[in-house]
């Protein structure tokens, strides 16, 4: 909410005790670097679901006075939430920590085909498997097994990586490209395999990239295993059909089980053909409050 022009949404608590507010508008006119959220909880529906803003919000609430609008059972105010934007390549440096993805932090990842908002799916978990959903998303804790290089290193001699390393203790250090990570879904505790974070640039997966991973950047998640023909495998939302699934209609309500697949890096490559392997990574702000309701 803003100081001069409050924005509001209303939503009903679902059977699973969750509620979703699908839209958030943050004005850039004041050049604010953060905003706050206020959540009011009522013990029964008192206003229709929807979006209200500015004077209309105040007027509608005032107009409900005669309808015995109850006092909220509880009100929660969040801590300041940082407003982020996709950083330029020149500013995506370790010193700009506010835009970096940090070890031990919460993140959300989404997959978008051909840059189309309607073909967006969000990484989640269901029935003990990682999946991509079109309507809901999950928060993941990102833990480092081994961080990537921060500067170019000599070519490796082909020695196999150790498969017995344990996640290091979470720190505030930025995660870098080439890092081996584990994603843990916070609601179920489901963990991913060990994954190597790779850079994506102009729709292509870039091997050997270095530097910190920043908010709103696209990444690919490479498996420690390889295909039968020794190609790298990446965690993707391509669906069951290997060819048609890559360009499937993401507007469907079905969940897509995530699978490891190779890139389409061939002489016949076409733009967007690897979109199903690319994930945009975003940091999450989480707030928890204990409350006793009547």
TrEMBL record:
Domain RBP-J/Cbf11/Cbf12 DNA binding residues, every copy: 1-98
Answer whether the UniProt record assigns the keyword Calcium to this protein: no
For the Beta-trefoil DNA-binding domain, which residue ranges apply? 99-264
Its chief place of residence is: nucleus
> Subcellular location, in the record's words?
Nucleus
Q: Which domain of life is it from?
A: Eukaryota
The molecule here is called: Uncharacterized protein
Tell me which species this is from.
Linnemannia gamsii
């Amino acid at each position: 909410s803003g100081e001069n022009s409050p924005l509001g949404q209303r939503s009903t608590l679902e059977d699973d005790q969750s509620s979703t507010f699908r839209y958030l508008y943050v004005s850039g006119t004041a050049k604010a670097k953060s905003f706050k959220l206020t959540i009011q909880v009522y013990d029964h529906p008192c206003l229709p679901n929807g979006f209200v803003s500015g004077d209309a919000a105040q007027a509608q609430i005032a107009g409900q006075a005669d309808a015995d609008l109850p006092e909220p059972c509880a009100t929660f105010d969040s801590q300041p939430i940082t407003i982020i934007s996709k950083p330029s390549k020149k500013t995506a440096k370790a010193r700009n920590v506010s835009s970096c993805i940090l070890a031990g932090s919460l993140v959300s990842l989404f997959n978008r085909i051909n840059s189309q908002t309607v073909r967006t799916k969000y990484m989640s978990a269901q029935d003990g498997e990682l999946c991509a959903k079109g309507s809901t998303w999950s928060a993941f804790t990102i833990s480092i097994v081994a961080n990537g290089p921060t500067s170019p290193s000599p070519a490796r001699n082909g020695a196999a990586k150790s498969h017995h390393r344990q996640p290091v203790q979470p720190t505030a250090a930025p995660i870098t490209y080439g890092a081996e990570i584990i994603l843990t879904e916070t609601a179920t505790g489901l963990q991913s395999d060990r994954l190597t974070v790779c850079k994506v640039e102009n729709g292509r997966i870039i091997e050997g990239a270095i530097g910190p991973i920043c908010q709103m950047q696209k990444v690919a998640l490479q498996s420690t295993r390889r295909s039968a023909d020794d190609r790298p495998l990446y965690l993707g939302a391509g669906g069951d059909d290997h060819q048609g699934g890559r360009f499937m209609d993401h507007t469907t309500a079905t969940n897509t089980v995530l699978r490891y697949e190779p890139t389409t890096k061939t002489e016949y490559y076409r733009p967007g053909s690897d979109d199903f392997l690319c994930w945009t990574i975003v940091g999450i702000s989480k707030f928890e409050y204990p409350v006793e309701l009547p």
